[in-house]
Specification:
alpha/beta; 8-stranded mixed sheet; globular
Length: 200
């Protein structure tokens, strides 16, 4: 039997995660060779696949956002995690911009299919969904947490879970990304960031 659940952003923009537990799939995630571990080049992590057009964005996100770098480091170190990112023209709700399907395979591998609605705010959406992926890695029991008002975990009208943690992380990465970009642009015009308020 397969168990399903949803995680989604409760905000003007929604992102979501579908969790599926399955024992029908064999473990397809062998250990990576030692010379490949931590050898991510410009763009994607070794256990994350995505359209080529996103690779430059990933690199820039990692350069600008300390929070996103921490997310990437943890995801890269998770040998039981695989993430595939694809573009889709629409999602179940009009104001939903991302939807991830999670399968827990027999050997313990967590396989995530992340759908991004095109066009969209990819910086915030990717960081938000990555945080949900980390919640899955940590074994956070979202269903149980929804019974507590103090847990900051809720469910929307399409039975999608949402966590304050993912909301906050997505917004933080978005803010770091744009703030760093603004500082870089101003630095290029003034030749120095030291005199620019808000840039460090």
């Amino acid at each position: 039997m397969m168990m399903k659940g949803l995680i989604s952003i409760l905000a003007p923009v929604w992102f979501a995660l579908v969790c599926v537990s399955s024992q029908l799939l064999a473990d397809a995630n062998p250990r990576r060779p030692a010379d490949e571990q931590g050898s991510e080049k410009a763009g994607m992590l070794l256990n994350v696949s995505a359209p080529d057009v996103l690779k430059a964005l990933f690199q820039t996100m990692r350069e600008r956002s300390p929070t996103f770098r921490r997310q990437c480091r943890r995801i890269s170190e998770a040998e039981n995690l695989r993430i595939e990112i694809v573009f889709v023209p629409k999602l179940p709700l009009n104001n939903m911009f991302a939807l991830s399907t999670v399968k827990r395979e027999k050997g313990g591998t967590i396989a995530i299919l992340m759908k991004l609605r095109a066009p969209g705010n990819y910086v915030e959406a990717i960081a938000h969904e990555f945080e949900h992926a980390l919640e899955q890695l940590e074994g956070v029991d979202l269903k149980a947490l929804t019974t507590s008002r103090e847990s900051n975990v809720s469910r929307n009208e399409v039975y999608a879970y949402e966590t304050a943690r993912a909301l906050e992380t997505g917004r933080r990465v978005r803010d770091e990304y744009w703030r760093a970009g603004d500082c870089k642009a101003r630095a290029q015009s003034r030749r120095s960031v030291e005199s620019l308020p808000g840039c460090d």
